[in-house]
Amino acid sequence: MLDVSVSFNSFAFQESDDSLVPVPYNQAYERGGFLTQHSRRIDVYSGAHTHDAEVRVRVWDMEPETGGGPWDKQDEVDFESATGDVAIWSTVHGRLPALISLGAPGRWRVRVSCSGRAEAKKVSEREGVAYGVEKYVVDFWLQR
């Protein structure tokens, strides 16, 4: 489980080697959509402006069941990794220390599922920073 600092409603998953990312995070960021796919980068639009989200990342050999939930939002995108390592980025904090090891470079499919979006927004507006209210499950699986 990772604690991800969300700021300006966003964070991103990005190829670990920044020199291989044509448009690095926070450039060409689109507000409002849940997931936005870029070359070697996935932007996530959060329900709350500033908070710490709980993110669970799982790596699979094949497409996993969608299970869990209920989810407020769920979507899938493609992700290409040249190194097999993925970094997490936040607008204010930049690159976060956690590194996701996919185990191999290649073309991956990614499913992002989220719950607690509305509650995180309420808590953030009422109390300041919400901690662990918005929860994500992020599944990566290698495309064959």
From TrEMBL:
<protein>
    <submittedName>
        <fullName>Uncharacterized protein</fullName>
    </submittedName>
</protein>
